[in-house]
Specification:
Chains A, B, C, D: InterPro entries: L-rhamnose_isomerase, Rhamnose_iso-rel, Xyl_isomerase-like_sf. Four copies of one chain form a homotetramer. With 389 residues, chain A is α/β, with parallel strands linked by helices. Helix content of chain A is 45%, strand content 11%. In chain A, α7 packs parallel to α8.
């Protein structure tokens, strides 16, 4: 029951990085209401500044994901320099095929070749941006689907999706990747074109080695054993990235670890088990929607949750676990798991943070920094959209 | 297996009425995108006109529910006269406690007495409107809840809810009712203050005889046997109204009967069994969200779905069913149910409609009427909000 | 809205066959209680006789699936002859790795090589039986998994599963197939080794061309769009068979089409769309659990449900559907679907049955046949187990 | 972040008691297989002895629930003396209306008055037993329901249930209670007669003040906010008892706290908030099914889980929480919750146990006690049934 974080564990934690999304700092909400908040960024440069605050207080968030077209700027080299000045880098590029009227009935899957063309071209533009920002990953979340049985030809759409992805994939350079996200439902309410990991897997395997699956922890049917999927995708060599968040019901996009901490622990145990920790092939990102809580502290809380839970996962006594498993000792094996989970790693992590020149309590440090007061005063009329895929 | 609709059945169908919501004709969508549509009403008068089209082609939708403040007009008697000119009446008044910034952390349940006061006053204003429109029912759907464990004191909120409702209830006149809707989740993602029928029931029973439960068919946990709740609320004398719609996943707000027609059948079978059909105590309404389909035809399709399924429910041979139930004949009893469900009532209903001076095919009749083309041309810049509770 | 079953449709229906399971005629139940029924078969020969009754009254069930070891007999050629005398054939062989004490912690996935050996050998024995019975398919449903986090090493089990399956697959002759079933949960309550179609697909693809996925309609998470999976597996060329049944909650194993007829319709629409109907690669089977209803009539009802729903799926006006889809006519496309679904095909099917020398009403014909009374009297002490995977 | 358990907290923990069920020590399993275990009790006296071991090592389980008829003995005063000799008392009496052939289609709800009579008489017999054992509570879990729409008249059954319960309730003495459990589904797969807390509440309110609701933590629809129901039933004064266990999917009956520890924490937080802790009106019990794990250690683990989580719930800084709630500080309020949850109370509890003459590590102490080895050797042929309601 020791809380001792060994040098090996601390070494692993030191390497850990969690990408934060630019859109986390904009306004977001539900279909019923988007509550505005003071200090909302007015442009992408300000979003990067907010993200840099998360990294400054935690040392955990060195890169920022961008969303195109929301984060289109005239001069990406200026944006890149701005980020680097603030100690962060530009990361994954996310495409958007759900906010144009043209995409009402699909984008990469649309019956109409002209609309598919437009959607493919949008992705090619995203790759142009990647070339400028130095980003490795193009992440595709498809909002496409249908609301009523019969509305769409699911099979034809699946075939067209593959064709569209092939054209996009062909445009990637050798050090770039395509990461395809799946989602159980929403905004489509009958069928979704990439609804499960199996579909994403089958689609990316047909593309090539640099096509991977993105696992968003909120995009599964009720009751799904998510750590099993983590295990399977790592085993199949296709786990490209995580979109972390948490949920009680549907895609609630709450702070990672908030709804079911033990599930996050189990996921990270499988990540470690399968060699996915600090593995460049497996990117850790947040994708959340801060509807009612403060946004920058929400992101700080989130990366800390990932860090704390990773520490617990690393504490797991794998030798004892394997022994109990081999012996068919159900309660013994479970006890080894629970011992790691229930260990309070927070004091040791606070000490370790201080030893690295970081605040022991990043939440308190941010609150004391005056940053929020400053942006509340300075940024008038900011309404940069965010959302919560 | 007869499709014969007896005079008794036709008599019941003739009395049937399904209230349509004013907000069905405005734009609605998801948190990701609201797709605009041509012909969107520019004011409440135009929404009433659209609703009247539904009734004109079906004879099924004689009343229109209003939403306050969306449908506030300077002169409700003018609105009332406008409606009556078009052959419909103003119906249920729906309150709104989810679109003001003040309500971020609650309305009738809020910790702050001033915000509760504001929310109560809003409902008193709604009752003022009811007095002017001649509406009987005040329907309250509470979007209130919390997103994170600890965020709110659920117990205190429950007590405050009761106090707030008592004050509202006290203002009703003797022929008016309060109808309290429950919803499993959304927009709150951890706890909802009225999440299930039990809570709504416990709350309204404490108010008095004219407080009832509203059952929205999309507001339940996965797998819930909704017809059981219909049965129970009828048994307890507290089923005040239905909000009809359908869903595959969460509160998808699809067209009633579209996702699971057999469920709609079972619900209507229990309505008939429990004396809820054409019973003034049990109001039938639609509450849907036409995100991708045409709105007026969507409403026509919906009221027809209710009518057709009611006809099937009335076809049920209750004597044969009771006999098989008494005999423990599982397959026999189920066969009696399925026989009614699988009977194609559509041709007989088409004939009967014609005999009453209504179009045999209301969908085709609306399409041929030229109304849609007219409003598409006339209404420029309409953006009356709708949504999908 | 015509109910006309064209010669083309009738031709397709004439070819249709639904395999019935030998275990449907034995006793089955829940963990709480297995209710015995009169007439329970005392051996495999009597199960075949019961299955033959289903075929005799419907012409739809020409083959019977066997379960090893439940259906082990000394002389399979005698069983084969017995079946053929009754007008049916022996079909799929189902293995059993869940009823031995050894398998408490796994079979094909077990940590202990000796237990894996035993489980593999059991499958080799099943293939021996297949050689004798002339069966094509070896169906593997794995009950394996764990109840507590930490109890099992999911990743190691997945690798061992692949090794075990490879050995089994290697033993198949060139005209035999391995069909791997997946199941969301139960009897394991934390992790299941083949929980979803993606896992089954990834496992069988690694085996070879004659390894396929079995889709049991009751083995999915709540809300899963099953017809999407049907579409996808057909597209990927790996849909080996259906286990038909229905459910409201978990793996309830109710009569196919009983819980959600419209879902069965949508599944069959995708089967037809994807070329899976009367395609020898895609076997139709029942796998149900008649806990409270009569067993032989339960099977008759089931194959009729599949037939009736197939007729409706064949009625679908695919040209009109495709036109509406291309036009983005959501309501129009859905109307084409619903028109086929709501068409009452039962009278036409009854006529057609009679024209082929079959009873118009197979349920009534069976009831009138005296068979049930005969077996109730003759079979004393029958307790052949059944269950409901 | 202190782990300091104050004297007040320890005082509360000292009073805590969790009733254990006699059937936890018998064999249990799924419909697919019941795995036997060595040491299975051969009669009720041996079950009591096993239960006493749980109490001896934990000081937490002073009473044992009995199940009639499984635990019927000729001389209950001898059983009572046996229990008291071992330091425990006989507790709640559980009735059984699901294992007789007569009850296939219902018991207290059956259409046939003779079968209702039998079921009522069984409950009257249970009350006779209560008089002999000195038990306060009669707990009724009804397995009743139906598998197919139409099979049963849900409304008639609800009325008959009320009549049956009234007769049973009338037989209780003034210090006895009736506790009615609800369950979402299983063993019935379409409708269940008491499926939700609302139904149980409505039924018991009609009986009288000594009729209460039993909340089994595994008996809800996916996603249900159970702590909300705890809050509501405490508010309404009708939370009679808990049946603790945990689940990932359906009524999995796993060890309490094993599947979602944070949920157990939230439940206990509401128990404390609502005055339910160490309140004689609110009985804490286990109802679990040890299918693959050792049974006595499984029970020890379970009561410890309840104790540890109660300690965390008592650590909650309610003043700080209320302050953050009033301030609308979402992240601050959540942080107060999480701080209590993440505090490692295990070392302090181990010390405290020792100070009271109990083993610091009850699991290890039991393993070292030799009891299991003794019963494995002594008890040959034990097959006392258990199950997992």
């Amino acid at each position: 029951m020791s809380t001792q974080l060994t040098p090996e564990i601390l070494g692993a934690l030191e390497q850990q990085a969690v990408e934060v999304p630019s859109w986390a700092y904009g306004n977001s909400g539900t279909r019923f209401k988007v509550f505005g908040t003071p200090g909302t960024p007015r442009d992408t440069f300000e979003k990067i500044a907010d993200a840099a605050e998360v990294n400054r207080h935690t040392g955990l968030a060195p890169t920022v994901a961008l969303h195109i077209p929301w984060d289109l700027v005239d001069d990406f080299s200026a944006l890149r320099a701005h980020a680097e000045d603030l100690g962060v880098r530009l990361g994954t590029i996310n495409s958007n095929t759900f906010q144009d009227d043209d995409y009402k009935f699909g984008a990469l899957t649309h019956e109409d070749a002209a609309i598919r063309r437009k959607a493919i071209d949008h992705h090619l533009q995203c790759i142009d941006v990647m070339d400028e920002t130095g980003s490795r990953d193009l992440k595709i979340w498809l909002a496409e689907g249908s609301n009523y049985p019969g509305q769409a030809d699911m099979r034809g759409r699946q075939d067209r999706l593959q064709e569209s992805l092939q054209e996009i994939y062909a445009r990637l350079s050798a050090d770039q990747r395509l990461v395809l996200e799946y989602k159980f439902f929403e905004p489509a309410f009958y069928h979704t074109d990439v609804p499960d990991w199996g579909t994403s897997y089958a689609q990316v395997v047909s593309l090539g080695d640099r096509a991977m699956v993105c696992l968003d922890t909120g995009h599964h049917a009720p009751g799904t054993n998510i750590e099993f999927i983590v295990m399977q995708l790592l085993r199949l060599g296709r786990l490209g990235s995580f979109d972390f968040n948490s949920r009680f019901y549907a895609d609630d996009d709450l702070i990672v670890g908030a709804a079911d901490p033990f599930q996050l622990f189990r996921i990270l145990v499988e990540v470690v088990r399968g060699g996915g920790l600090n593995n460049p092939d497996v990117a850790f990102m947040l994708d959340q929607c801060h509807n009612v809580e403060e946004k920058i502290p929400g992101q700080i809380r989130s990366v800390l949750n990932v860090q704390e839970m990773t520490a617990r996962a690393l504490l797991l006594d794998r030798e004892a676990l394997a022994g109990a498993q081999r012996a068919g000792d159900v309660l013994g094996a479970n006890a080894v798991m629970m011992d790691a989970f229930y260990t309070d790693v927070r004091p040791a992590l606070a000490e370790w943070r201080e030893s690295r020149g970081l605040p022991a309590d990043p939440m308190a440090a941010y609150a004391a920094s005056g940053y929020q007061q400053r942006i509340n005063a300075d940024r008038v009329g900011g309404d940069q959209a965010g959302w919560g895929a």
